[in-house]
Amino acid sequence: MLHGFEQWVIELLRDLMQSLGWIGVLVAMAIESANVPLPSEVIMPLAGWMLIKEQNLPLYFVFWAGFWGAIGNTIGSLTNYALGIWGGRPFVEKYGRWLLISKRDLHRAEKWFDRWGDKIAFFSRLLPVVRTFVSFPAGVVRMHPIRFTIYTFIGSFIWCTFLAWLGYITGENWEVIRAYMRPFDIPILIALLVLLLLYIKHKWSEFREFDFNNSSYTPEGE
């Protein structure tokens, strides 16, 4: 079933790129960064083959592909970031205790993103699965928007250029790239699930002893 879905995605992307060219790459990567299952491991290698190699364009056009892919990634990521600020944060502040997220947790996350947010925004763009979902929590904790945009673009540019290059050098066999990368999805998903379960276990024990959501809590230094 998964393979059939990916074949449908490939045909959809072919039509999109044939109709819109590089704008099609931008649109596809923006959708991918907005939590829609259009794998970049399919989009960018296809662009490297279809819009560069098949058009007999020189290799340096992979940087052009990386640029359009990164622009799309950044647009989609900023959409998720905005949702985190305007929708996710009010939801967490109001209903966070039902998700085992206290006001103190939110403040800790803000401090953590303030210190490490640049690296998170950058390196997450180089990881399958994680790269799609990091923007929303960055918005929830209100990471600095300019820094978020800059590091998201840089990380996305490197990732998109690399995948476009792979599509260029593999030519008509570009689809093998996704086949080689697909096995990495499962270990990452398992690791994220384990971390989630450990967090739930820790927070459940904590919440049984303390009420971190009471209104008397104020962040450190205030």
UniProtKB/TrEMBL annotation:
Spell out where the chain crosses the membrane: 20-38, 59-83, 148-168, 180-200
- Please state every residue range assigned to the domain named VTT: 39-168
Membrane topology note:
Multi-pass membrane protein
- Cited InterPro entries: DedA_domain, VTT_dom
Compartment(s) where it occurs, according to its Swiss-Prot or TrEMBL record = Cell membrane
The protein's predominant localisation is membrane
Gene Ontology, cellular component aspect: plasma membrane
User: Which branch of life, at top level?
Assistant: Bacteria
Q: Which keywords does UniProt give here?
A: Cell membrane, Membrane, Transmembrane, Transmembrane helix
Q: Which family does it belong to?
A: Belongs to the DedA family.
Protein name, entry field: SNARE associated Golgi protein-related protein
